[in-house]
Amino acid sequence: MAEANTQSLLGEALESVVLVKLRGGIYVRGKMKSFDQHLNLLIEDAQEMVEDGTMKSLGTIIVRGDNVILISPTPK
Amino acid sequence: MAEANTQSLLGEALESVVLVKLRGGIYVRGKMKSFDQHLNLLIEDAQEMVEDGTMKSLGTIIVRGDNVILISPTPK
Amino acid sequence: MAEANTQSLLGEALESVVLVKLRGGIYVRGKMKSFDQHLNLLIEDAQEMVEDGTMKSLGTIIVRGDNVILISPTPK
Amino acid sequence: MAEANTQSLLGEALESVVLVKLRGGIYVRGKMKSFDQHLNLLIEDAQEMVEDGTMKSLGTIIVRGDNVILISPTPK
Amino acid sequence: MAEANTQSLLGEALESVVLVKLRGGIYVRGKMKSFDQHLNLLIEDAQEMVEDGTMKSLGTIIVRGDNVILISPTPK
Amino acid sequence: MAEANTQSLLGEALESVVLVKLRGGIYVRGKMKSFDQHLNLLIEDAQEMVEDGTMKSLGTIIVRGDNVILISPTPK
Amino acid sequence: MAEANTQSLLGEALESVVLVKLRGGIYVRGKMKSFDQHLNLLIEDAQEMVEDGTMKSLGTIIVRGDNVILISPTPK
After folding, report:
1. Is residue C32 part of a domain?
2. ipTM of the predicted structure?
């Protein structure tokens, strides 16, 4: 599986709930519906979890890819 | 819907009111009228919401795309 | 008007007074005379407004595009 | 071995446990399953080690390459 | 004059004294002798003006373009 | 030797012990075994020297090039 | 001399002693032996001058170009 491209890495997480860690201490959780080659993400039922513990419902959001640190599928 | 490009992701939010989170703790809210492939945005009736709670009317603005963290359609 | 490029977005603000918000808490106000595809701007009768409230006349200036956060036409 | 490309450098660490140091004081440890030309990484059984000493199990994660500082195979 | 490229914008300031504002609170003043497409600048009789008010003569310097915030012709 | 490319600059340091200064106050010392055109480095017997004076053995590591500030061959 | 490229700007400083100001408050002084199109520099008899006034001999070093703020030939 070496040398896989970004698309194939991300394709495995489509339609599942992911936790996305962004620069600036921002966490977003929701269902990943789509992505493109810049790692821009379309996330449904998104919730922003700020590091002070607060949560905010955002609905469907578009995340700009260059803020992404890591994407983690979350336990069901 | 995997591997969609940025344009198709953003197209769904055109002409609706969006909340745009920018780097540096800046939030802008307004009607998204246009965008390009760099995520530069043209926003109408824009209001800047600084984190200290103040709001400022900006009219129509152009946001440079590389400051965008996420774009969220807001509830009507 | 979807998928417009940067040039057409900016063209609407040419020859009018704009407020440009730059990274690092810098605001510049003046008449936008020209721009290029990097969002480099040529601004006439420019005034820098530092966040502590001071203003400084700069004459005609060239702003490097990658410092731009947003461009806002100002009320007459 | 001079002038090897990124792929050949990283290929030697595939399927082994690696410690990945990211910007912002973030350490991630886990089995490197895949990578692409942007240094995006697919890591299995990943654990995030924050600098205050806490650990968090993340399962399989995708790390965006431009956050990577260094990748180190760890002792068995 | 819309859609002018960077070269034509900068050409108007050649051989005149400019004030260059750089990232990190650095100001450089001197005669702009040359530039290239990256906004790298060759400045003669350059003086660095640190924000604490000190000045330092640097002679002829080369400024790397991606540190430039804005370039301003100074009054004679 | 003007206008040499990155590869020829770095080739002179191959197989010798180098001190690599990285962004964020990180120093890594070890034998440079390989590099590519992005300045990604493969370093053997690497030791990280944090600025508080502590050292940590890392074995063979891959350093992502865009964190590199400077590379210095060390005295034998 | 307008519109000169980076190479011709830097060629004038080859084989002479330069003071290089880097991001993060780092100054390096030494004889510039070579450079490439990314502003990567090969500097001989380099000395790092940290802002607290200390100096450190580094021998021959390679400086990664995107850390460079400005390059200044020093008085003989």
Report:
1. yes
2. 0.82
